[in-house]
Amino acid sequence: MSHKVGIIGGDGIGPEVIAEGLKVIAASGIDIDLHNYDLGGSRYIKDGTILPDSILEEWRGLDALYLGAVGTPEVPPGIIERGLLLKMRFELDLYINLRPFVKEATEDTEDHNFIVIRENTEGTYAGEGGFLRKNTSHEVATQGSVNTRLGVERCIRYAFELANKRDDKHLTLVHKTNVLTFSGDLWERTFNAVATEYPQIETEYNHVDAACIYMVQDPKRYGVIVTDNLFGDILTDLGGAVSGGIGLACSANLNPEKTAPSMFEPVHGSAPDIVGTGQANPTAAILSGALMLDFLGEIEAAKKIENACAKPETQKGTTTEIGDAIAKLVTT
Ligand code: IPM
Ligand code: MN
């Protein structure tokens, strides 16, 4: 069966790394019916298009979306992020942002293998806020954080289910309950309530600042981490940094009930400074492709790609050389 996948290469190194991801998926023998979409900062500069509702509607008929990176220095921050990426996450109800971090042991560091489950549709990303008296000396800017019981609970439940499938059966809630006494309280109460249904899961709470230290000094302590949208954004860049670099960090934006297609993208951005130089590591995009295949039920192919990416010999050379090396291992 062929899977219908919308491809958004996007800006900067996005199209370069997605090309490698598609090469590897093809090598794995999985049939993908590609639907290309020219969207992102460059398209916006060309004709003002960001994400028309007609395209969103078209996407509802697809099985998944595979995205490289969006954003160009010529477009002011926020326009493409909010109008394209966040619109996708919100409109398609991609409420789970799943980001796995795996690292093999080295001479002086231990191995680790943890997954961050980031709430993906609420928090400060909801866009609540505004200006008063903009550009005056007594200007006011507010930026609220939206946290609903439904939104928090469905994310926490997903994290418990995921933790339950892992051998370590360990789940950490990360927040800042000592300062964010309203949203933090809702997260903590919900977490504790759901925890009573999973007595077999070992639970823990970390303040986000402490979690930053632990993630650097003792990442092995983590199994699954569940956290809000903004903390999850920041923590997962750190997760990438302690797991071989952001060039390896993959992610899945999931609608677990499959009422709309889920979206798969590397954590890194469009990196305009290295476009066309062959320096972009396509592994994050390739691993995001593996997450996509896994979600589409192609578990064996996904595992093969994951294993190939973990082989150190694939991690040398240019963008296409890395893609070729992984594709070769996946074929044989
Ligand atoms: C990410 C990115 C996005 C986010 C940006 C580009 C809006 O940093 O996926 O982590 O903040 O969610
Ligand atoms: Mn980010």
Structure in words:
The structure is a single chain. The chain is globular and about 50 Å long. The chain contains eleven helices and twelve strands. The longest helix is centred in the middle third of the chain and has 17 residues, at 149-165. The chain folds into two domains: 1-94 and 266-332, Isopropylmalate Dehydrogenase; 96-254, Isopropylmalate Dehydrogenase (3-Layer(aba) Sandwich). The strands form two sheets. A ten-stranded mixed beta sheet has the order 2-1-3-12-11-4-5-10-8-9, with helices on both faces. The chain has a two-stranded antiparallel ribbon with strand order 6-7. The model has no long low-confidence stretch (mean pLDDT 97). The protein has helices at residues 14-27, 41-47, 53-59, 79-91, 149-165, 183-195, 208-217, 229-241, 283-295, 299-309, 319-331, and strands at 3-10, 32-36, 64-69, 96-103, 112-119, 129-132, 140-143, 170-175, 202-207, 224-227, 250-254, 262-266. It is of the alpha/beta class and 332 residues long. Helix 1 (14-27) packs across helix 9 (283-295) and helix 9 (283-295) packs antiparallel against helix 10.
